[in-house]
């Protein structure tokens, strides 16, 4: 520390750099504080914005539930359809749930008031108005239904909708107000920034003033001395000031003093020659006296240096703040010959140490440290001495008048601030000016010691912070010096080396820490050679090294970077990364490539081989049929494989669409089982139905794909045959389907990964069984999209059981029959735009059988004219039309741009796989050829029913149902 102070004392430029650096530190800290304040404003705004948006979302859900309930009641009263009544009760629950969610998110009085009004309306509407209307309707009292509507029913609904609209507008106003508040606070932050800039300018002026004072004042003093010498005025050597400075000014003053001394010596030499004879005798007499005084001064100086040495040595050997303060008080009291004393640091804790003081005296001192006499130290920053009469409590057994001398000493920091206060009391005698100056010199040493302690504490805090940062890094970090000794290590590295604490690795030699790593690894000597080449040979070109930890089932990658300081290598930083998942993914990719190559080439070989035979040889009809059957089966196999890839791609990209309807899961499973029976002759299939509640809301084709994959897997992985049992049962209000086989089973370690893409169990028995590892991944995604779950239990050599759990749908008696007959209850008008005559005839026949009125056109322009004229209820549109004057895309765009025709549902029927584009342009559904025509009629009816519920169209029903 003393060297550092001398380093800055010896140069004004260095002092200026120190002041500028301090200025930059203050500027950076202030800028960071303002930046953090700005960030906190944005975070607060985001929180309030999220709260308001949450309430807006729940309010929209409330509005949607009520509007749907209104629509269902109207639909029920208009068409007497039971599904509307059931939908109404579901929406009643949804409305209550949405109100509960909105109440949980409520934060203002307006929120609470709206929720109370909404609940009152819900109680009135759901609990009184609708039940009375339904009872009246079902009893045939239509007049009462109309009366309920006229006598407040419609008005209450309109009033609630007005309240709903007002509340949503209030939420939007709150969001706007929050944004305005953010703008105001940001203006405040900008004002604070301007104030900060002015403060930094003021600080810069103060720095300039300090440097001017340090340079200008001594230069003026030296200039004044030079003028006196030029005027032949008498100038004493002691008049030259600033000779104690070590910078350029001090050197200039010393040179000036030497020059003055040289001039005066020459002048005195001339005078001394005249007085030499007279002074010789006096000089001999005084010589003995001077020698005696010099001896006494030397002895006193020796004692003083010893006390100084003891004091400085005691400070330099301590790093604990309290120990240092106690040592300062003790040694200062010894040097001053004081009877008691105390030191207090001017920090927030008022850290102190005392000598010869009672606890009450210490408490009194700390209480009034900023008042009374001590305030003088903060203002003048100079020591002072007081003489006072000894109080009665201090005299002990003495009765005469006594005096005590108190000395107050400030400890100044390098920025001339009062860092600490020293107060000592002496009963033996006063403090001389020489002693006071001596004590001031000791306070400088105390200041250096306190700064050293502060720097040590800051260094320790910085070291702990760096260690905490390293411990948060997921990789194992290890810094070793040039000899391989461990210097810095984080918690992850300690765990890797099987050490409980980081301290066990601090200072560990290369042999100590490397042995534990090499013994765990399967790389052995290769890993050891890699570490040695980098640490001891300085090899910096090594690629990252991969090694395995068999006991932990981990794959690690280590790479190294040298650390240089001032061009000299200090050591090496090793980073150990856990790449187990990446390694497993790479393995899976390699296996996938080989599997896909095999799965694609095998059926392609059969197709090409049998095709070549049919082209090059004359075959009997039976043989041709056999070969064609094989080609057809292999083509279906390829199609299924490609469809699996496409399904996975669509699911991962979120573009998979589902046409969910109420379906009986039993009929789906029976159809799948019938289809799979033709693929085996050694398996027996069983369907165990243990519940009558087998209706689910789902996509029939996708659910069929789920059970096709599961049952085909049960067949494939039980090559010796056996029973394949499908059990359907109800559990916890969910429909569960078990698919059980008696095959190879699945190892326990493979169960967590069984639904992962491209994963296949590593077993030679299974490798002979074809597959890409995509089937179960597709099953999981489809079941998840249906709000269901899929799980597996298995035992090796005894078989596996896959369980699919789906939400149950409870239907009223007879409703299933109504669902099956929905196709035949609509008499809507449909126009088919299709250039393929055969496909158009097929679609037309299907739709007419389902009760629709159908017209067919082939060209785009003709289709647009017919649609504008007849305004049908739905349009079936092909994209690639025969006439190129208008493609299907053009027809779709023109219909959606026409306000009178934009509401008409459009179902695209195309061989192009451009579902996203069609839906984006406004199509309501998209079918990729080939598809089952019955799906088209069901989809059209579903779209028309949805529009009917929304009040956009009215579908005429058969006379019997209308009654």
UniProtKB/TrEMBL annotation:
Start and end residues of each Histidine kinase domain: 595-810
Entry's Gene Ontology molecular function annotations: ATP binding; phosphorelay sensor kinase activity
Database matches in CDD domains: HAMP, HATPase, HisKA, REC_OmpR
Matches recorded under Gene3D superfamilies: 1.10.287.130, 3.30.450.40, 3.40.50.2300, 6.10.340.10, Histidine kinase-like ATPase, C-terminal domain, PAS domain
Pfam family of the protein (one): HATPase_c
Domain Response regulatory residue range list: 829-944
Modified-residue entries (4-aspartylphosphate), positions: 878
Enzyme Commission (EC) number: 2.7.13.3
Coiled coil: 263-308
Segments passing through the bilayer: 12-37, 192-211
Membrane-related topology note: Multi-pass membrane protein
Protein name per UniProt: histidine kinase
Organism annotation: Anoxybacillus pushchinoensis
Taxonomic path: Bacteria, Bacillati, Bacillota, Bacilli, Bacillales
């Amino acid at each position: 520390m003393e060297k550092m102070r001398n380093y800055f004392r010896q140069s004004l430029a260095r002092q200026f750099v120190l002041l500028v650096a301090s200025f930059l530190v203050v500027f950076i800290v202030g800028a960071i504080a303002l930046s953090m304040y700005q960030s906190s404003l944005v975070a607060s705004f985001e929180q309030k914005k999220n709260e308001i948006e949450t309430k807006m979302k729940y309010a929209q859900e409330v509005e949607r539930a009520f509007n749907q309930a209104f629509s269902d009641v109207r639909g029920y009263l208009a068409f007497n359809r039971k599904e509307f009544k059931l939908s109404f009760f579901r929406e009643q629950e949804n409305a209550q749930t949405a109100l509960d969610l909105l109440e949980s998110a409520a934060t203002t009085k307006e929120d609470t008031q709206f929720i109370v009004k909404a609940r009152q309306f819900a109680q009135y509407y759901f609990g009184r108005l609708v039940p009375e209307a339904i009872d009246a309707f079902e009893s045939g009292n239509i007049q009462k239904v109309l009366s309920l509507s006229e006598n407040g029913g419609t008005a209450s609904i309109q009033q609630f909708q007005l309240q709903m609209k007002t509340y949503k507008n209030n939420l939007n106003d709150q969001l706007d107000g929050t944004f305005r508040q953010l703008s105001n606070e940001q203006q405040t932050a900008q004002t604070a920034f301007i104030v900060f800039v002015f403060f930094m300018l003021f600080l810069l002026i103060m720095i300039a003033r300090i440097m001017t004072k340090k340079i200008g004042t001594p230069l003026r003093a030296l200039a004044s001395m030079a003028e006196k010498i030029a005027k032949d005025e008498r100038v004493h050597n002691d008049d030259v000031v600033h000779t104690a400075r070590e910078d350029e000014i001090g050197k200039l003053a010393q040179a000036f003093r030497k020059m003055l001394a040289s001039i005066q010596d020459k002048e005195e030499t001339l005078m001394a020659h005249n007085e030499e004879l007279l002074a010789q005798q006096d000089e001999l007499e005084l010589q003995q006296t001077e020698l005696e005084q010099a001896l006494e001064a030397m002895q006193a100086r020796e004692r003083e240096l010893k006390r100084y040495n003891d004091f400085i040595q005691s400070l330099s050997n301590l790093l604990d703040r309290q120990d240092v303060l106690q040592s300062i008080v003790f040694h200062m009291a010894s040097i001053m010959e004081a009877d008691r004393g105390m030191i207090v640091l001017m920090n927030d804790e008022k850290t102190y140490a005392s000598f010869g003081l009672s606890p009450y005296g210490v408490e009194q001192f700390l209480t009034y440290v900023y008042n009374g006499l001590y305030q003088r130290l903060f203002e003048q920053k100079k020591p002072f001495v007081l003489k006072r009469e000894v109080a009665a409590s201090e005299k002990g057994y003495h009765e005469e008048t006594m005096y005590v001398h108190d000395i107050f000493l400030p400890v100044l920091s390098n920025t001339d601030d009062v860092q600490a206060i020293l107060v000592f009391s002496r009963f033996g005698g006063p403090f001389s000016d020489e002693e006071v100056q001596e004590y001031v010199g000791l306070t400088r040493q105390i200041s250096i010691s306190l700064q050293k302690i502060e720097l040590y504490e800051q260094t320790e805090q910085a070291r702990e912070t760096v260690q905490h940062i390293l411990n948060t890094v997921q990789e194992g970090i290890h810094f070793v010096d040039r000899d391989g000794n461990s210097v810095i290590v984080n918690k992850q590295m300690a765990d890797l080396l099987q050490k409980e604490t980081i301290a066990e690795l601090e200072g560990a030699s290369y042999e100590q820490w490397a042995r534990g790593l090499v013994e765990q690894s399967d790389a052995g000597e290769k890993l050891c050679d890699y570490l040695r080449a980098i640490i001891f040979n300085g090899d910096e070109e090594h690629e990252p090294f991969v090694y395995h930890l068999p006991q932990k089932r981990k794959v690690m990658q280590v790479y190294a970077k040298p650390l240089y300081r001032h061009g000299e290598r200090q050591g090496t930083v090793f980073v150990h990364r856990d790449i187990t998942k990446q390694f497993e993914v790479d393995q899976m990719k390699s296996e996938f490539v080989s599997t896909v190559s095999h799965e694609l080439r095998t059926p392609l070989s059969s197709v090409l081989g049998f095709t070549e035979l049919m082209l090059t040889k004359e075959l009997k009809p039976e043989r041709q049929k056999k070969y064609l059957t094989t080609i057809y089966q292999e083509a279906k196999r390829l199609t299924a494989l490609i469809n699996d890839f496409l399904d996975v791609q669509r699911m991962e990209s979120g573009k998979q669409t589902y046409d969910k309807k109420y379906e009986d899961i039993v009929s789906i499973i029976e159809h799948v089982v019938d289809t799979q029976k033709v693929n085996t002759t050694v398996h027996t299939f069983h369907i165990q139905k243990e519940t009558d509640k087998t209706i689910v809301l789902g996509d029939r084709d996708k659910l069929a794909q789920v059970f096709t994959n599961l049952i085909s897997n049960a067949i494939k992985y039980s090559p010796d045959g056996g029973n394949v049992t499908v059990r359907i049962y109800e559990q916890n209000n969910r429909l569960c389907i078990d698919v059980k086989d008696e095959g190879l089973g699945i190892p326990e370690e493979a169960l967590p990964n069984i639904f992962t893409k491209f994963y296949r169990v590593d077993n030679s028995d299974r490798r002979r069984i074809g597959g890409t590892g995509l089937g179960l991944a597709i099953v999981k995604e489809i079941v998840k999209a249906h709000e269901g779950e899929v799980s597996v239990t298995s035992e090796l050599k005894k078989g596996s059981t896959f369980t699919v759990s789906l939400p149950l749908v409870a239907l009223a008696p007879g409703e299933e029959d109504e669902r099956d007959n929905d196709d035949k209850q609509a008499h809507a008008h449909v126009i088919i735009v299709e250039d393929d005559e055969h496909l158009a005839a097929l679609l037309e026949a299907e739709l007419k059988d389902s009760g629709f009125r159908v017209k067919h056109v082939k060209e785009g322009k003709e289709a647009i004219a017919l649609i504008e004229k007849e305004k049908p209820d739905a349009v079936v549109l092909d994209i690639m039309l025969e006439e190129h004057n208008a493609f299907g895309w053009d027809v779709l765009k023109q219909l959606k741009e026409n306000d009178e025709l934009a509401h008409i549902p459009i179902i695209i029927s195309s061989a192009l796989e451009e579902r996203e584009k069609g839906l984006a342009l406004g199509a309501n559904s998209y079918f990729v050829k080939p598809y089952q025509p019955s799906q088209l009629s069901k989809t059209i009816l579903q779209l028309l029913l949805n529009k009917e519920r929304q009040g956009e169209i009215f579908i005429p029903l058969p006379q019997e149902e209308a009654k």
